[in-house]
Amino acid sequence: MTIHVRFFASLRERTGIDSKTVDADGLHSIRDLWSALTDEPLDETTLVAVNKTYAGPDHAITDGDEVAFFPPITGG
User: Fold this and answer.
1) How far apart are CA 33 and CA 30, in angstroms?
2) Residues near 51 by Cβ (< 8 Å), separated by ≥ 6?
């Protein structure tokens, strides 16, 4: 199973990954994917989109999905 992953803004800087195609065999959810790519726990405020639709950390991933990780929106 292949997943295309993108990291944006500070998450891209922190992980050192802009975009990457991942062999996701054995991974079932967004949380599993995050754990396979980083050594950090998934922060519940991280925004995630699967195929351009927002999804939660337990959302199931399937072959061909595009998963994007965004840092939480802040403002002042």
Assistant:
1) 5
2) 65, 66
Structural domain of 7: 2-70
pLDDT at 24 over 80: yes
In a domain, residue 21? The reply is: yes
**Is residue 76 in some structural domain?**
no
Residue 75 pLDDT class (50, 70, 90 cuts): low
pLDDT of residue 73: 78
What is the chain's alpha carbon radius of gyration, rounded to the nearest angstrom? 12
pTM over the 0.70 mark: yes
Cα→Cα distances 51→41, 43, 63, 74, Å: 23, 20, 11, 23
Residue 28 falls within a domain, yes or no?
A: yes
